[in-house]
Amino acid sequence: MKGITVKQPGGADMLQVTTHDIPNISANEILVKVETAAVNRTDIIQRETDLGYMTNNILGVEVAGTVEQIHEDTNTSLKVGDRIMGLVNGGAYAEYVSMPAERAITIPEELSFIDAAAIPEVFLTAYQTLFWIGQLKENETVLIHAGGSGVGTAAIQLAKQLVNATVITTAGSDEKLSFCKKLGADYLINYKKEDFSEQIASFTNNNGVDLILDFVGASYWEKNLASIAVDGRWVLIGILGGKNVPDIDLFELMKKRVQLTGTLLTPRSDSYKRDLTKDFSTDVLPLITNNKIHPVVDRVFALEDIKKAHEHMEVNINIGKIIIQVS
Ligand SMILES: NC(=O)c1ccc[n+]([C@@H]2O[C@H](COP(=O)([O-])OP(=O)(O)OC[C@H]3O[C@@H](n4cnc5c(N)ncnc54)[C@H](OP(=O)(O)O)[C@@H]3O)[C@@H](O)[C@H]2O)c1
Questions:
Q1: Where residue 32 sits, what CATH number does that domain have?
Q2: What is the domain extent for residue 174?
Q3: Which of 2, 71, 183, 289 is the most exposed place for a label (fewest CB within 10 A)?
Q4: Which stretches of the chain score pLDDT less than 50?
Q5: In angstroms, rounded to a whole number, what is the distance separating the alpha carbons of residues 103 and 46?
Q6: What's the CA-to-centroid distance between 149 and ligand 1, angstroms?
Q7: How far apart are CA 28 and CA 131, in angstroms?
Q8: pLDDT value at position 310?
Q9: Please, which residues have CB within 8 angstroms of residue 46's CB and are 6 or more apart in sequence?
């Protein structure tokens, strides 16, 4: 089968189409014939430098496709031919991939494989960080950075639909912000034109926000600290703006009693991802089926055009997900 690997750590030029054996499956696993996969920042970081926790040398962490084979020692209601989507332990940019059966989500009838591949990584991340970790509650205020990103577009919808939060979002263009408004965001800030901490002080009557979903890290440190409420939760899930903060005022963190949590989904255990998938399927899937929440697809690239797909993400122009059409 065809798969995408990295010649050596570096730019998008290092991506190559290579030939592999179809994966063997173990007990409790299924083999998936991949229809679509999607690009994630973690794939780009893994392309540039070995993350140390990906064992599969084929890139990609999420797929949509059909069940091709089920290991005989697997307790599952899935059948060969079922349409499923879900997180895989690497290997998504390929014609076939193995995955734990209990992590497969049945694709609602009304969704195409393209829409389905836009769901697992960003919706599970947004659900996990807003609710499991961030403990977002009914009518609280949440600041979602990079509102036009894959995770941002998912998080805005989840925060509105599940707990009717007041959503403040930042993005780098007015086009992205008007899209965020359509998804339900209440307050929009173009961080290239305005100081987001000043805007948030004015939107919240100087109280700050209850939760920050932070993809940016270092470059936003001080403004995030200024924008968070007393007893606020701050979930750090990306370092697009750098990882080293030169001058941290720990007293400010203490004074505001901030709970700061860092997290990465990809290296989490199979059992964690199984439980997350289960809660997501119960709480969110019905809202997708009922058209209340939508996967957001930016563009679709053929597997052979993987270099262009990575470059498209790296210039920061996508709104929502970049999909790879495999078959
Ligand atoms: N920790 C986890 O478990 C986990 C899981 C999934 C994703 N993530 C992280 O979540 C983030 C979003 O992922 P994604 O796949 O949704 O990304 P994406 O669709 O590629 O969107 C990222 C957006 O972030 C904005 N951005 C980039 N650099 C920035 C900077 N220096 N300052 C401010 N904004 C910047 C850009 O939009 P603008 O035009 O608005 O600048 C860019 O389009 C990534 O950092 C990713 O690594 C973490």
A1: 3.90.180.10
A2: 123-262
A3: 289
A4: none
A5: 23
A6: 6
A7: 28
A8: 98
A9: 6, 54, 59
Identify whether residues 246 and 317 lie together within a single domain: no
What pLDDT score does 50 carry?
A: 79
**Shared domain check, 132 and 109:** no
**Amino acid sitting at position 254:** M
Same domain? 95 vs 115: yes
310 belongs to a structural domain: yes
Whether 128 and 253 map to the same domain: the answer is: yes
| Domain assignment present for 270 | no
Q: How far is the CA of 240 from the centre of ligand 1 (A)?
A: 6
Which tens digits make up the pLDDT trace of 241-254?
Answer: 999 999 899 999 99
**Residues 278, 301: contact at Cβ < 8 Å?**
no
CA 31 – ligand 1 centroid, Å: 30
- Residue 258, domain CATH: 3.40.50.720
* Best residue for ligand 1 mutational test, from 189, 239, 240 (most atoms within 8 Å of Cβ): 240
Which are the contacts of 112, defined by CB distance < 8 A and separation ≥ 6?
none
For the CA of 313, the nearest atom of ligand 1: 20
pLDDT of residue 160: 98
The one-letter amino acid code at 296 reads V
